[in-house]
UniProtKB/TrEMBL annotation:
CDD domains per the UniProt record, alphabetical: E_set_Isoamylase_like_N
Stored Gene3D superfamilies: Immunoglobulins
PROSITE patterns hit by this protein: CBM20
InterPro entries, per database record: CBM20 (IPR002044), Glyco_hydro_13_N (IPR004193), Ig-like_fold (IPR013783), Ig_E-set (IPR014756)
Protein's UniProt name: Isoamylase early set domain-containing protein
């Protein structure tokens, strides 16, 4: 798994690319604070090599809790900026610092 951040000089946003290697998966989405935890708003596209990938514009100078939703199972990003406990979920969420 990987996260790539590209800050734009012309806008107060960061283009964040999420990459998830999941050859056997049928669907992968990234859900978090930035999209009200909605899988429909952030489905990743499956590439020919079996990796799922998607790029989203997120506001700079913010932090967001998120997880991947792989075939209905929540998975944390191994390369997250940090992790934060979430009482509602009863587990740690990955955190993206922009």
């Amino acid at each position: 798994m990987a996260i790539a951040k590209k800050y734009l000089k012309s806008k107060p946003v960061c283009k964040v690319t999420f990459t998830v290697p999941a050859e056997e998966a049928k669907s992968v989405a990234v859900v978090g604070d930035f999209n009200n935890w909605s899988p429909k708003a952030s489905t990743l596209k499956k590439l020919k090599n079996g990796t799922f990938k998607g790029t989203f514009d997120l506001p700079k100078e913010n932090s967001f809790e998120f997880k991947y939703l792989v075939d209905g199972n929540y998975i944390n990003e191994t390369e997250a900026d940090r992790y934060q406990w979430n009482d509602y979920a009863g587990s740690e969420n990955a955190v993206l610092e922009l």
